[in-house]
Each structure stands twice: as structure tokens, then as C-alpha cells.
Amino acid sequence: MYSIMIVDDEKAIRENLAGIINFEEYGFRVCGTARNGEDALAKIPQCCPDVIFLDVCMPVMDGLAFLKELHSREDADLPYVVMLSGYSDFEYARSAMRYGARAYLTKPVDEDEVSAVLRELGEILEERQRTLKRSDMQEQVKRLKGLYHGGDGDRTSFRGYQMMHCVILKENSEEEENWRLIRELVEERLYGGEAAFCRNQGCILSYLAGPETLGDYQQSVTLFARHLLHHIKKKGMDCALLFDRVLFERQENSFRRDYDTNLYHMLTELFWGKEAIVECSMTDASDFFDRRLDGEKEYIEKIRSAVRGRNAGALREVYEEIDEAVRRKKLNIIFLQEINYRIYYSLMDLLDEERIADVRVTPIDLRDTSCFMRYEDWREQLWRQLSAVYSCMENTDSGDGIGEQALTYIQRHFREQISLKSVADKFYVSPSYLGRCLQKALKGSSFRQYLNDLRIREAKRLLRDTDKMIYEIAQEAGFTESKYFISKFTDLTGMTPAEFRRVESM
User: Fold this and answer.
1) Per-residue pLDDT, 398
2) Which CATH architecture has domain 134-281?
3) What is the mean pLDDT of the chain?
């Protein structure tokens, strides 16, 4: 609620104005009154009004003199002034506006006119409050970043604040578009300057949220998160929200250590199947860091032996052993990431030993991806990585293994927006190498030719068996543009889709 001071030399007006106008209805309360401009100037430091209703003609110091003195002060948050006068002379109004008055009303005041002024001032004050809060939050974010990079520091001023991490779970567009959409959707609802963007890393966007962020949701993290996730999902995004209030309640460790530990703790819970809302409940990190994988070196040596010996059964067996051990122990993602890189470097060594340069093995990185992997995604990625390297080494000369696997993948996913590069990424090989493998498997045909052939075949089926529109069939068959679909269909069949449908229906 905002405050109003009434300044008028007539006692009846000072006392009765509040009775005429229901200020509270518009979000205001009368915080004080004054007999003249000099009296008002003396009372402003104690009263701190947001708005002043000011009479023009008063003894000692009149309204215009008061305005001049008020606006001579170097104060960024001066109250807004509404002039009151029995004079309707334009010159009074113009002088008042020149000296900073927001509005000019003649006595006796009209209730509708006052109401309109109060509504306008309420909106202006709310926006000013939001601006001040945003500025304050930005300063807090700067301090937070200083704590993070400096390691130690006092966190007491952040009591009541929390960190909110937005984790992108599935991508539906380019990486930058995902970030932009999430930021727009989140910041649209973190109104009032009660939160500010801090940083992004891979699929994670982090915000510092102020003490009043959850005010509209009865201080319930769950209610607020569900509301936010609902709007994010409406835009086709899949996201999780992680909330950390414990971070600002502890003081014994370095801030950076606590920040990273708490974040990875929540990400680990998300990795192992926690629903899309995770609150940090971590009080002791010892157990979290103790969950290492026993026998890690032996597992990696078994991988090397199976791949080097071209033993597919042994490779599958060690993969299942690793999967079982990781799942049984609910390994935290910090050490899981270490295992990912050790397997990666081991595979790179094997490829170097065999002098295979065309295979592009990339490490599985849980931290720096455009969308966050959960357990099922990780185990699938690990097997693809292992089997891709194995197939390349088993078929060093022919490339048959990769080619046949890629064909199967294309047959299952041709309706999606796939490319030679995206398929190559799935099998951890370079696009050029995959292209050669596919040409061999297809006996001279290329990836693009085979993909279009599959899509046209599907389009023919839809034209025969459904009454869907041409543009709908184009989309379902994997074409992004109807014009391109019609052109390609005509080139390959000698007739347009509409002509094909008529012929098939006879």
C-alpha cells in the first residue's frame, strides 16, 4: 500500500478529504497532513509519502514555492504531487506542471477525477517499485557471482533467497532457441523484480529468486513450480525446476563448493528419475561423494579386451555389468561423468592403435549438453558409443556394420528432421565416413536419395489409404515444405500427388 500526505491550510479539507475519497480502494493510505509547504517539508522525512495532495494558496509557503524547494533536492525518489486549488486559471496549472506536479485538480474535488489520478499514480508507483527491485536484484546477482568466483564470503544478506535452476530435458529446436524460449517463459512470470538471471551452463539456466517470489503461491515451491512448468509445457518445452534454499542457510564451507555440490545433488536426483520439481534437502555431502563405482579399472579393461578381440558378446556383458553397478549404487553424476571420460579416452586409444581416423568419438557429457540426460538416455548413449567403435573396428575395411545399423535407424526415423550429420552423431562417426558406409550398403545410392525414397514411399501409402490434405501428408512423411514435397514427388513418380491419388482411386 502506498502513502499520501495532504497539505492544505484549511483544517476541514485536511480532515475531510480522506472521508470523501476511499484511498484504500486504490491502494493508498493517508500517512500525514500539513498546514503549509514549510510544515510539509519538515514532515516528509518521517512520513515518507509516495504522493502529496498539495494546495496552491497557503500562508508561510504556498504550493508553487513548495514544489520549487522539493524539486531542488537531490533525491531520486521524490513523491508525486497532485495540485489542489480553487483556481481554475490555466496559468496556475501550467506553473504547477512546470515545477513537477503530476496532476492539477480544482476544488471542490470531483471523485471520478481523483479516482482516475489515483489509478494512474498506482500504476506508475508499481512500475517504479518493480524497477527498483530489478535493480536491487541485479546488484545481488553481482555479489553472488563475486562469492562464487571468490570462494568465500558472507551469505547472511541472502537469507530468505533461493536459487532456481531451469533444466531443459528435451530439445525441440536449436540450442539457442531453447535458452531464449525458457528465459522468456520464466521471466514473464517472475514479475515484480523478485528474481534475476544468473548464468547458464549447457542445459541449465539459473536464477536468484528473492524472498517474495513465492508470495502469490502461499510460499509453496510446488505450487509455483507447477504453475511455471504448466506454461513452459504449453509452448512445447520439457523442463525441470530445481530449488535450493539450503545454500544460503549454511556458512561453514566455501560458497562455490556448496553451490556446485547442491546443484549436482539435485541433478543426480533428476537423473535417477525424480519428477520435474526437485528441492535441495542436502545437509551432509559425505554420502554423496562416497558413492563411487567399485572395480572401475577392471570394467574399462574388459571393454578394451572385448573390442580388441572383436568379441561382441563380451562387450555386451561388460556393458550390462557397468549398467547394473551404476544403477544399483545410484551413482552421482560427478563420478558418472568421470567414468564417461575414462571410457572415452580408452576408446580413443583403441582407435589410435588400429589407425582408424574417420570415427568421431565424442565424450558423453552430462553437464554441457543442450538437453539433460536421464538414466535411460545415458545407458542408451553409452551402448551406442561402445557398439559404434566396436562395429568400426570389426569392419575396418568394409564399414558394413555401421552402414547396416544406420540404415535401420533411418528406416525408423525418416519421418523426423534427420540429416547425415545428425545420424552420424548418433553413431559417433564423421558424416563423410557414414556417407561412404551407406553408399556401400546401398550399392551406390546416397543418404539423401534413400531418405527421399522412404518418404515418398510413405507419402504414396498415405495418398492411397487416407483422405488427408496434401500438406498434412507432406508433414507426416517427413517433408517440411509442401512445395518441395510436390516437386520431389513429381520428379520421382512422373505425376503430382493429386494425380497419383486420382489414378490409385480408380
Assistant:
1) 46
2) 2-Layer Sandwich (3.30)
3) 84
**Strand, helix or coil for residue 470:** helix
Q: Is the pLDDT of residue 433 over 80?
A: no
Per-residue CA distances from 229 to 54, 109, 168, 204, 278 (Å):
48, 48, 11, 15, 12
Is 290 in a helix, a strand, or coil? Answer: helix
Mean pLDDT of 450-460: 93
* Inter-helix orientation angle 447-465/431-441, to 10°: 60
Q: Domain 2-109 carries which CATH code?
A: 3.40.50.2300
Distance of alpha carbon 274 from its chain centroid, rounded? 19
d(CA 23, CA 29): 6
- Beginning with the edge strand found earlier in the chain, give each strand of the sheet holding 238-244 in spatial order: 195-201, 204-209, 162-170, 238-244, 277-279
Going by the DSSP 8-state scheme, the letter that residue 488 receives in this structure is H
Helix residue ranges, H only, 206-294:
221-234, 255-271, 286-290
Cell triple for 327: 544403477
Q: State CA 439 to chain mean position distance.
A: 42
* Start-to-end C-alpha separation, the chain: 76
Fold of 450-505: Arc Repressor Mutant, subunit A (1.10.10)
Cβ atoms within 10 Å of 391's Cβ, excluding its own: 24
Q: What are phi and psi of 55, to 5 degrees?
A: -75, 150
Backbone angles phi, psi at 254, to 5 degrees: -65, 150
- DSSP, collapsed to helix, strand or coil, labels residue 244 as strand
Question: CB–CB of 407/441 below 8 Å?
Answer: yes
In tens, the pLDDT along 133-190 reads 778 888 888 888 888 887 566 788 888 888 999 999 875 545 567 778 888 888 887 7
Render pLDDT for 282-315 as a digit per residue (tens, 0 to 9). 665 555 556 667 888 899 999 988 888 788 889 9
Q: What is the pLDDT of residues 96-145, one digit of tens each?
A: 777 778 888 888 888 888 889 999 999 888 888 777 777 888 888 888 88
pLDDT at residue 364 above 50? yes
Residues 6+ apart with CB under 8 A from 405: 387, 388, 391, 427
CA-based torsion, 409, 411, 413, 414: positive or negative: positive
3-state DSSP assignment of residue 59: coil
- From 42, 41, 37, select the one nearest 65 (Cα to Cα): 37
Question: CA 295, CA 301: separation in Å to the nearest integer?
Answer: 10
